[in-house]
Amino acid sequence: MAAFRLGTAAVEGRFPATGVPSPRLLAPNGGALRNRDEAANGGAPALRPRPRGKAFPAGGKPRRREPLWQAAVFASVALNVALLLHHCVFSSHPPHGLQDQAACLMQPDGANVAGGGESRASQREPTAGATRAPSTGKPAVTPDSVINLDHGDPTMFEAFWRETGDAAEIVIPGWQTMSYFSDVTNVCWFLEPGLDHEVRRLHRLVGNAEVDGYHVLVGTGSTQLFMAALYALSPAADGEPISVVSTAPYYSSYPAVTDFLRSGLFRWAGDANSFKGDTYIELVCSPNNPDGSIREAVLSSEAGLAVHDLAYYWPQYTAITKRADHDIMLFTVSKSTGHAGTRIGWALVKDRDIAKKMTKFIELNTIGVSKDSQLRAAKVLRAVSDGYERAEAPSTHRLFDFGRRKMVERWGMLREAAAASGIFSLPEEASGYCNFTKEMAATNPAFAWLRCDREDVEDCASFLRGHKILTRSGSQFGADPRYVRVSMLDRDDAYDIFVKRLASLK
């Protein structure tokens, strides 16, 4: 039985003795060699020495044999020299498999090793692995580091999960999750029942979405579900592609994903506020990425359709004011729990036919979704719900409490830094009554929509890049390049350096 543990436990495996490969030697053509002499001769017929005869050398006297101890000393020296050479060769030139593994570990961003990339000598630098931050492969930050806040990598939550012990750990036996199928009676036949249960349980706990009367669909992140929704809502391929729109500033991946395959079913049509037409798919992200505003659909037509992206509609980011009940709602563990690397998202879909079409897209795209990831996501969601519903759960296991404290603290630091600088501005703070916390709660978005107000700066992203701060330009969101989107979800050390550096800019 082979097993592996996800979380902090070690990998373990047990294999039966019958799994040991046969010691039979194979020739280069795939056939078996008759003996070890052929193996030593590269598969050619063995070269055997002539049998020893009784003859004596000239002179008629037998040749005296060397003492046995001299032969033993020679063999020992030869063996040690061979081992020394073996160590030297493989220290500087590791086997191909190990070399590839080292390159993978040291170059998580896929840098080109063979041509024009980092030298192999630098890849083998023994201190490289020690300077990597845990689980991300990113270099540890220093006061002089480039601070990359372009991506919404939610590593802020690592500190929370380190304190939960084995609450979110899972052991998957080697025989489990082998079939393509999870529940053939379900519309989404590859959805693990445990994940279905925990998704519904968490939404009922938080109160951010209706689940009764909805189909739960699972995807490889919410991006795949977004693509599945476009496919399911598009008209027949013999007509014009349906227009896909969203109110600016919109999530920068919407146009990129929509037009990536140049589909004949749909096409990106830009800002919903300037769209003219009755047939469309409107993408509504609320709270909005990048500016954190609460959004509703702006278009209204009987032929119009809407997809609601609610990835950030969780108590750590905003007040939960109602149970959303839209036709299609998208969520993800990336921003709800911080487990971006698990690559699990889910959709709540009212209409059965739409749910079946979305499922068909995922079937054709990836033949389902990783069961191992689903089981881990289910355990993570279960740990979140248990933190609030189990009386014996410690307060340190309450994810949304941790997230809200961190976001309130970080937004306070950012506003102070912007004020100290005098050249940046941020959206006004909004608040509302949160049905989950039973108190008034301010909106603390996962991203800051930062504007540079200095007159000589027309491109805020370029300006900040010059000061070793990487952000995403407003132009990628259909907005003014004097705006940038800043991730608020990085680790404390990176975020602290960022706000100090921002405050120093004048």
Distance between the termini: 63 Å
Strand order of the largest sheet: 5-11-10-9-8-6-7
Give me the number of helical elements: 14
Strand segment count = 18
Low-confidence runs of at least 5 consecutive residues: 1-63, 83-130
Largest sheet: 7 strands, mixed
> Helix amount, in percent?
25-40%
Could you write a compact summary of the structure shown?
The chain is an alpha/beta fold and 506 residues long.
Care to describe what's here?
The protein is an alpha/beta fold and 506 residues long. The protein contains 14 helices and 18 strands. The strands form five sheets. A seven-stranded mixed sheet has the order 5-11-10-9-8-6-7, sandwiched between helices. The chain has a four-stranded antiparallel sheet with strand order 12-15-18-17. Strands 2-1-4 form a three-stranded antiparallel sheet, covered by helices on one side. Strand 13 and strand 14 form a beta hairpin. Helix 6 (193-206) runs parallel beside helix 11 (371-389) and helix 7 crosses helix 10.
List the helices and strands and how they pair.
Layout lengths: L1 E5 L5 E2 L22 H5 L27 H25 L3 H11 L13 H4 L23 E2 L9 H5 L7 E4 L19 H14 L8 E5 L1 H13 L8 E5 L6 H7 L6 E6 L8 E6 L18 E6 L18 E5 H4 L8 E5 L2 H15 L4 H19 L9 H23 L2 E2 L5 E4 L4 E4 L4 E6 L7 H6 L3 E2 L1 E2 L9 E5 L4 H13 L2
Parallel strand pairs: 3-16, 6-7, 6-8, 8-9, 9-10
Antiparallel strand pairs: 1-2, 1-4, 5-11, 10-11, 12-15, 13-14, 15-18, 17-18
Helix pairs in contact: 6-11, 7-10, 12-14
